[in-house]
Write a structure and sequence with these properties.
The protein is mostly beta strands and about 650 residues long. Helix content is about 0%, strand content about 50%. The protein starts with 14 loop residues before the first strand and ends in a 10-residue tail after the last strand. One of its GO terms (cellular component) is M band.
């Protein structure tokens, strides 16, 4: 029998009560939340209880999960994105939306509506920044669930990236390039449209299209001297971007190229002569499309073209030569506007079997270096009659480069050469080769790179007349000490006073050949022993000197007179206030007979505060005075106020 507070349970559609032997079973099918509770079984006065808890964690519909995970939600810019996601689970349910890991909250564009089994996110007036990975998180007391989806807001592309860069500007063609847009609007670029505007007019005219993989355009319907602007627009399925507008481009007038440079004979034999050159620095109004080679016999004024049409490349073999004759060549560059100026002519060369190439230069060496030059020297190669060197070519390459560059535009006939205009402390690899009419010999290269700097020198002071070991400076005056030196590389410079760093008012300036100490306003405390030390990789040197900052001393204190020894007078005085600060300070004692006006020195260079005068004539009156002196001069005197007299009978002071 069940207690009154319990409901009786009988078998039904979902609930089955059954007995299997001595065991009673209660089966509940299709469990629902209201099935939670405490169940009791009673029989023959006995009873037992069990509690049933029904859990209902958050769960997304599997079809919805598959749809959200495999499909990108597309929304056009300006439209409203609406995403509905059904779910199930025990209430209350907390629903949160995230974009790229950041939780979304409602504002004037975003709204989130949650019901018992559906959550809906709405974003009005969408823009490209709303694109991203969306995450929906569910949470109740029974658990958590989350799912992801992708939202893509499509729009027309951004404008192509600039600036518009002109590749070619001639009287017949303007070519330029640009960069693809940073943002394609979420849809692939289909093509680019190019518009043209003639400066002074308001209208734009479409002049062409290029496919999505091309970011260059050539416009060949230009008038020389006219000014144009070009606008590039990117196009995708959503529309046309804003335009990237070029600066004003003035179509070039006819301009032919300048002369090619460095025409050179590479090889010569009885049947042909091979020459080379480098392109002109000035290509005129368009790119170079070819070259015309001309030849003449040495001594002739008539030039003739070697080929009927311009050739390409920077090297050509001329076969129309007569063995034994001597020829000169020149090269003319050609662009869309026509042929330009001719190059300088090559040196004359015979159409004959080539001379044997010269041997390798010997004893290639560096003779001097500075911060902007490197001087080289070498010995000629060993040669015979058929391989005599005609000159030398010096070549260099900088650190990090793989290209050897000729240093001398004119042939070097001597066995020395100086490279100029180098970068300070630059690293240069150098080589030299001999050449003759047969061609270039093998180069010889220095074993290591050369630094553009003077030869290594350990620091050394230049002890000229301006460098002194002792200086006396009047207090308040400036102190300026210049120490010239030589050293390479420039040394580290350290100044000390008494072994310690200089005071804040001291300034040190150093160059590659001197160092200077400046103290604008000197003080007594600036006195001391100064040292300057130079140090580089090749040595170290120091120099010490003394500076004494002083001034005319202050006068001694009051003077007293005593007759400590009969018929003498002992003069005593209080020390000058500068005595403790100046170990060069001493005193001078002077005496005057009262009957005369002149003072006479009776004691000099006195380093204490007492002096005894023995030259006293009894019966005469004397005045005494004491002065302090140092390297800067004498102080004012301290005088006795009353005369001193020793009586003829017995020494006695009279007042």
């Amino acid at each position: 029998m069940l207690a009154e507070s319990y409901d009786s349970i009988t078998s039904g559609d979902r609930i089955i009560a059954a007995q299997e032997g001595a065991v009673q079973k209660l089966t509940i099918q299709n469990v629902q939340e209201e099935d939670s509770g405490t169940y009791r079984f009673e029989a023959d006065g006995g009873k037992t209880e069990a509690s049933l808890f029904i859990e209902d964690p958050p769960e997304f519909d599997q079809d919805v999960l598959n749809q959200l995970g495999n499909k990108i939600t597309l929304v056009k810019a300006g439209d409203t994105a609406i995403v509905k996601v059904p779910f199930s689970g025990k209430s209350p349910m907390k629903v949160s939306w995230y974009k790229d890991g950041e939780e979304l909250f409602e504002d004037n564009r975003i709204s989130i509506d949650n019901s018992k089994n559906v959550t809906q996110l709405s974003i009005s007036n969408c823009n490209r920044k709303d694109s991203g990975n969306m995450t929906i998180k569910l949470k109740n007391e029974c658990g958590m669930a989350s799912t992801d989806m992708s939202l893509l807001v499509t729009d027309k592309p951004q404008a192509p990236q600039g600036p518009v860069e002109v590749l070619e500007n001639s009287e017949s063609c303007i070519s330029f390039k640009w960069k693809a847009p940073k943002d394609d609007g979420g849809q692939p670029i289909e093509h680019y449209e190019i518009d043209r505007q003639q400066v002074g007019r308001k209208t734009w005219t479409k002049v062409g299209e290029v496919d999505k993989s091309t970011t260059t355009f050539s416009f060949d319907k230009v008038e020389p001297g006219k000014k144009y602007k070009f606008k590039v627009l990117a196009v995708n399925s959503e529309g046309i971007s804003e335009g990237l507008v070029s600066d004003i481009i003035t179509a070039s007038r006819k301009a032919v190229p300048g002369p090619p440079e460095n025409p050179n004979i590479l090889n010569a034999n009885s049947n042909s002569i091979t020459i080379s050159w480098t392109p002109p620095r000035n290509t005129g109004d368009s790119k170079i499309i070819g070259y015309i080679i001309e030849k003449r016999k040495k001594g002739s004024n008539t030039w003739s073209a070697v080929t009927d049409i311009p050739i390409t490349g920077n090297e050509w073999t001329v076969t129309d030569v007569v063995e034994g004759l001597e020829y000169e060549f020149r090269v003319i560059a050609v662009n869309f506007s026509g042929p330009g100026e001719p190059s300088s002519e090559t040196e004359a060369v015979f159409a004959r079997e080539a001379m044997k190439l010269p041997g390798t230069v010997r004893d290639f060496r560096v003779t001097d270096t500075t911060y902007s030059t490197i001087s080289l020297a070498w010995n000629p190669p060993i040669y015979q009659d058929n391989n005599v060197p005609k000159g030398y070519i010096v070549e260099m390459k900088t650190s990090g480069s793989t290209t050897w560059t000729p240093c001398n535009t004119a042939d070097v006939g001597l066995t020395s050469y100086t490279l100029k205009g180098l970068t300070k402390m630059g690293m240069y690899y150098l080589r030299v080769r001999a050449f003759n009419d047969g061609g270039m010999g093998e180069p010889i290269e220095l074993d290591n790179y050369i630094l553009a700097m003077p030869p290594p020198v350990g620091p050394k002071f230049i002890m000229d007349g301006s460098v002194k070991g002792f200086m006396v400076v009047k207090e308040g005056n400036s102190i300026r000490v210049r120490m010239p030196f030589e050293a390479s590389p420039p040394p580290q410079v350290v100044w000390l006073k008494g072994g310690f760093p200089l005071s804040e008012q001291a300034t040190v300036t150093s160059t590659n050949d001197d160092t200077q100490l400046i103290i604008p306003v000197s003080q007594r405390s600036d006195s001391g022993i100064y040292s300057v030390t130079l140090k580089n990789l090749h040595g170290q040197e120091s120099f010490c000197f003394e500076i004494r900052v002083t001034d005319v001393p202050k006068p001694p204190g009051p003077v007293t007179l005593d007759e400590n020894v009969p018929y003498t007078v002992t003069v005593s005085w209080e020390p000058s206030k500068d005595e403790p600060l100046d170990d060069h300070l001493c005193y001078v004692v002077m005496k005057r007979d009262s009957s005369r006006l002149n003072w006479h020195t009776v004691g000099d260079n006195i380093y204490n505060n007492k002096f005894t005068d023995i030259n006293i004539v009894p019966g005469r009156n004397y005045y005494f005075r004491v002065l302090a002196k140092n390297d800067m001069g004498y102080s004012e005197s301290s005088d006795t106020r009353e005369p001193w007299c020793i009586s003829k009978q017995r020494g006695k002071q009279l007042f």
